Amino acid sequence: MKKYLVLVACGAAMPALSVPAFADGPFSLKDTPVQVEVPSWTGFYFGVGAGYGHNHSKNNYHDNGGGGDGPTTSSKNESADGGFISTMFGYDRQISDRFVVGAFADLSTSEFTRGNEDIHDGLVVDRSWAIGGRLGYLINERTMIYANAGYTQAHFSNDGWWDIDANGVGPTLPGKGGNWFSGYFVGGGFERKLNDNFYLRGEARYSDFGSEVTNTGDFEGTHYVDKEVPSIVTGELALVYKLDRPRILGGDTTPIDENHGPRVITYNGIDAASNSVYYYGGTVFGLTNDLYHNGLLLRSEGVIADYNYDESAAPHTNVDADDRSLDVMLGYQWVFPTWSAIGYVGYEVRSVHLSPFDPNNNVVGGESGFKVAGELETDDSLPYYASLEGSYSTAFDSYYGQARVGWNREMSFFGPRTITFGPEAAVYGDGGDYAPRVGAFATIPFQMWWLNTPAKLTFDVGQQWTGGSDGGETRAGGEGAYGGSMLRIDF
Q: End-to-end alpha-carbon separation of the chain, Å?
């Protein structure tokens, strides 16, 4: 994108002026209005990041000694460590030559682990979110340091860690299956402007949470209360993309067409099947070029899946599952005259909480691992359409694959547009279970006039089957019909 700094100087055609015009000496720039650049740090943004975190907690226990042994009070330190991946959204405004103020929200998926979930004695800090504001100071026109603060919540998923063993003389007293902790955060960092749209951010943050009761009750005349008092320290590196920088800076506003592609694509969708609802969203950044040409890409995708199933072994209890994942992947795109190909490699963090605990399901707790993905797709200008995409992650040995074939046909659907439609086949799998599908899809392009940007809406519907070693429990749901929709926006 071109960036124009305009300094107006009028010196031409001076001979045409009469001599009295020079009575006060040569022409002076101070008499000429100067066009000032719009502040370069103002704008809406979104981004993705990855980092490492440490949780420190105090476990405070008290009972009234109702059993005759007298009151008992104890306090001990506990900790959890691990990686996380986050997405962020916000708005900044430059209010002077040196200061920037902003508001933001972010969402993280993490794997801060404690104990051992394989023996039903573990805990995972699996996700968090925050909302707040920040104040920045520009060291120079490309680098800012800032401080931030706000409100945050973190979810602790318990797999036996909060249970209480009644000194071996009674049953295990189960604690909460999971709990949200609320508190405040303070932090700071730096942000470096890479070009008009992309910014590199590094941040450290401290979050303090109030105490929450994790286990309480009465046992043999004794009333007991167990509390956790946590705090979390994180460090993160993120890539941020600011929207509509050319418009804000008064530069080149070349529209998206067959020769000039978007720099960023976002997509969000929902998938529903028997006993499952699956939300997903992602962002693809063109790091070295627009997305219609060869170049490096950065992609991040998140999933929120809620599903339930009956245990494969007796007593066949119904189990509710909360499944969360987030990845960050670096890729490269090759663009050919009639098709394109993308390869990705990256890292995924995933957390699965089961209630009640299912000892026969090995997809439970938190795992992180390396992930690879690939995509092939034909060009929209062809009369036919074909695509193939897939991914594999070492986190729970999960995989996904989808193939589509079809046709591109111009139709009068709220105005002339090219509709893509045809059959599809897909498969989801993790931990030895799988869910194959067969169905059909349709993609409808349109213009989001309020954003002046192109978009596509895709629908699919079909039949799903399940199978595998643990009875076919996957985030894709059970056997029966499935359906979904996805909205893609090009910036």
A: 13
SS3 484: strand
pTM higher than the cut 0.85: no
Chain centroid to CA 292: 24
Token reading at 378: 């034909």
The reply to whether domains 43-236 and 255-490 share a CATH topology is yes
Residue 245: its H or E element: helix 245-249
Q: Going residue by residue through the chain (491 aa), what tens digit of pLDDT does each one get?
A: 333 333 333 333 333 333 333 334 444 434 444 444 445 789 889 888 989 999 999 999 888 876 666 788 888 999 999 888 898 999 999 998 899 999 999 999 888 988 876 556 788 898 899 999 999 999 998 999 999 999 999 999 887 888 887 665 567 788 888 899 999 999 999 999 988 788 999 999 999 998 999 988 888 778 889 999 999 999 999 989 887 655 555 555 556 656 677 888 999 999 999 999 999 999 898 888 888 899 999 999 989 899 988 877 767 788 888 898 889 899 999 999 999 999 999 999 888 888 887 878 888 888 888 999 999 999 988 999 999 999 999 999 999 999 999 999 987 766 667 899 999 999 999 988 999 999 999 999 988 877 678 899 999 999 999 988 766 678 899 999 999 999 999 88
What is the CATH class of 43-236? mainly beta
Looking at 64-161, which runs of residues are DSSP E strands? 72-94, 99-116, 121-140, 143-159
How many other C-beta atoms can be found within 10 angstroms of the C-beta atom of residue 257?
A: 9
167 burial (CB, 10 Å; 0-12 / 13-18 / 19+) is exposed
Please give the class, per CATH, of domain 255-490. Answer: mainly beta
| Domain layout of the chain by residue ranges | 43-236, 255-490
